[in-house]
Every structure is written in C-alpha cells, then in structure tokens.
Amino acid sequence: MTDGEMVTRRVAAIDIGTVSSRLSLAEVAAGRVLAARKHTEITDLGQGVDATGRFDEAAVARVVEACRTFTAEARAFGAEGVSTTLTSAARDAANAEILLGQLRDLGLVPQVIPGEVEARLTFFGVAHDFPDERIAVADSGGGSTEIVVGSYCERGHELELDRLQSLDIGCRRVTDRFLAGDPPAGADILAAGRWARAQFEAYWEGQPTRPDRLVAVGGTVTTLVAMTHELVPYDSSFVHLRTLSALEVERAIDRMRKLTAAQIAALPGIQPKRAPVMLAGAVVIRELMRAGGYMELTVSENSLLAGAAATIGEVLAGERPTVGWTPELSR
C-alpha cells in the first residue's frame, strides 16, 4: 500500500491500570498514530490489592464510572473499534470478575493482558519516536514495571526485542507495602528503595549491553517533569521527550519525603489524587536509574495506549499485529 492509499481509521483504546484508567481517541494509519487525545482518571483500582488480593468495591465503582464516560466519548468520536485492557491489579485480584462483568455490561470486551503483552504494546507505542534505535523502555505503573530492550524497524514494521520483563514493582504496591506512614518513616523509604533496587539490578545484570537511551513512560515520570518545572496547567507537549535527570528525581524525593499526602497534593504540577503514591513512584524511578547506571532518561507521553491504538488499526486493516497480540474489539 502506498502512502497515497493509506486509510485513516478512528479507534479508541481504554487501559485500566492500578492507579489510573485512561482513554485514547486516535486516528491511525499504516501502524502509526497520526493524532490522539487522551482522557485520564485517577481511579486507584489497586488500592489494597497487594495486601488482600482482592478489589475493593468502591474502587471497582470508580473504574466503571470512568469507563461509562469513556464509552460515550468513543461513541461520539466515531471509533470503528475499541480495545479494553487491564494490567497488574487485575492480574493480581482474585475477584477480578466483579469488574470484568460490569465492563461487559457497558458493551466493552475487557482483556486482562499478561505483563509481556503490556511490555510489547508500550514499546511499540514509544519506539515510533526512535526508529531503528536500540533503546530501553520502562513503564512504571501502580503495580508493576515493564522493561524492554530492543528496536523498531519502521520500514519493515518489525520489533526486534532483546529482552522484556514485567516486575511487580509499582507506586501503589510500594506505598501499600512500605510507606504506610503519612509521612512515612525515613527507614521505610530506605527499605522500599533497597527492595526495588535488588529486582532492577537482577534485570540489568542479565542485559550485558545496555542501550545508551532509557525512555520512561507513566504517570510518575510525567508528573516528576511537571513537578520539576512547576507546570500549571499540565502541558503534554512540553513533557513529551523531555529529559529527566537523576538529580531532578532525587530533588523531588527530598522535597516530598517529609510531607503528608495532603501537602504533596498542594505542590505545583501534582494531580491531587496521585499525591498518595508519588513518593513511592519517585523512589521506584530513582532505583530503576541507579540499577541501570543512567544519569538521565527521556520521558515519553506515548505508552501502552499508543501501542494499542496502532495495533487496533492493524487489525481493522486486516494486517498481522506487529506486537504478536490481537485485541478483542467492541464496536
């Protein structure tokens, strides 16, 4: 198919994570997202899941209400296909069906995806900005962090992945497991860092040749940029492909470590609902960078949503999905 014959399609991707529920309304063609707008709600689905192994009914209600709004927006957008993915919290919760059933009642087709698929979708979404460059991509969420090393050949629409892994390290999980105090004790912050670092070091030790560039996605790193530059209101075009240094992450930790969640929520650049997990998220990013030997990373606004949207476009065009996974679509 030539560029002149490319068909542009409107699609919608919903992703239900441990901390946030997100929607992308995208125009896609030839495996690329041409334009997109996003809607994010902090729904905190994973609150308490690490300890109990179960979803809280109030958290489920928050997610369902957000998805009710998302389905209306997708319909108004004229989306030809809608994918609905769920990640770490849904993988962990023994009673995930109470959420899945209500999502089906909204007309959605929810899929709880394994960490490997989550990692592939994220890499596919990010790597379009770095064609033919070998990079490391880290998606640090609420319940897990996916790390992928590889490259994307734009001409052949092929992913070449050296190594990918999903680690059970995320800002909600670390908060619930280590940082119960408000503010948490200094010893607990140190323990959280040691716990995360040991797992990240094990990953990097298995990757003898590390890429020069580390790209990170997720609400923690985008918020760290917003904090650093005191972005009010938030400006995604400023954040996208912005460099975040290890020193800036450390300064953010120092700024938050003795504050309550309410005080963190008042800081410029912070979404108030994200405040309770921001310190833990920053600690996770610091340990990721330390273990990999990175003094800076590149922040991307693209993520699993971009990869999912591009994949929906491939499926609607009758093409083989680049990521090796096929979404089940509602229409």
Explain what this protein looks like in three dimensions.
- The chain is α/β, with parallel strands linked by helices.
- The chain folds into two domains: 3-114, Nucleotidyltransferase, domain 5, CATH 3.30.420; 129-299, Nucleotidyltransferase, domain 5 (2-Layer Sandwich).
- It contains 13 helices and eleven strands.
- It has helices spanning 49-52, 57-77, 88-92, 97-105, 115-127, 171-178, 186-205, 219-229, 236-239, 246-256, 261-265, 275-292, 304-316, and strands spanning 9-16, 20-29, 32-42, 81-86, 110-112, 135-140, 145-153, 158-167, 214-217, 242-245, 296-299.
- The strands form two sheets. A six-stranded mixed sheet has the order 8-7-6-9-11-10, sandwiched between helices. The protein has a five-stranded mixed sheet with strand order 3-2-1-4-5, sandwiched between helices.
- A hairpin with a 4-residue loop joins strand 6 and strand 7.
- Helix 5 (115-127) crosses helix 13 (304-316) and helix 10 runs antiparallel to helix 12.
- It starts with 8 loop residues before the first strand and ends in a 15-residue tail after the last helix.
Discrete helix count: 13
Q: Beta-strand percentage?
A: 15-25%
Topology as H/E string? Answer: EEEHHEHHEHEEEHHEHHEHHHEH
CATH class assignment of the largest domain: Alpha Beta
Low-confidence stretches: none
Structural class: alpha/beta
Tally of strands: 11
Please outline the major beta sheet. 6 strands, mixed
If you consult CATH, what is the topology of the largest domain? Answer: Nucleotidyltransferase, domain 5
Average of pLDDT: 94
What layout of secondary structure does this protein have?
Blueprint: E1 9-16, E2 20-29, E3 32-42, H1 49-52, H2 57-77, E4 81-86, H3 88-92, H4 97-105, E5 110-112, H5 115-127, E6 135-140, E7 145-153, E8 158-167, H6 171-178, H7 186-205, E9 214-217, H8 219-229, H9 236-239, E10 242-245, H10 246-256, H11 261-265, H12 275-292, E11 296-299, H13 304-316
Parallel strand pairs: 1-4, 4-5, 6-9, 9-11
Antiparallel strand pairs: 1-2, 2-3, 6-7, 7-8, 10-11
